Amino acid sequence: MGKDVDHEHDAKVKHDTKMENGQHHQHGGHDGHSHHGGRHHSHCREPEDFVPVPKEPGCHPREETRKPKKSLDLQWRRSTIKVSPCVHCASQEAHERSKRYRAKAKCLAPIELMVCSIKLIDSYRKKREARQTPNVYADIWLPLYNVVHPYDIQTMKQILFGCVRYEKLLRIFLDRMYEVITTLTLDDELKYTVLGYLALLRLHELSWAHYRRLVMSQPPERMLPFVKFLFSEDALIKNVQRSWCEVYDVEFVRDMLESIRFFTPEAQQLIGELEKRVYAPDPLGRYVQPPTVPKPFKMSVSKTVCPNFEEFKPPEPFEARPAPMFEKGRKLEVKRLSALFRQNREILKKKYSDPKHQPFRLRSHERSAKVEQLKAEVEEKFNQDHHYIPAEINPAPNMPTVEVKLNVTTLLREHALFQKQMDQDKKKIEAFELELRDDSDFKLWQEEQRMQDEVAEAINIEFNRKKVMATDQAAIEAKEKYLAEKMEIGRGAREEAKITNQTIQQESKNEKFRKKLKHFLVVQEKRGIKIAREKVAKARKANALEVQAESEELCAKSTLQKAQEMAMKQELVRQLRALEKESCHMEKKFDIYTTGGQGLLHEMSIAQLRTEIVLVKRWLQHEEDMKRRKIHATKIERQNMLLERSRVVTQMRHIARAQWLSRKAHELHYDKTEINPAEQLGL
Question: What's this model's pTM, rounded to 2 decimal places?
Answer without folding.
Answer: 0.33
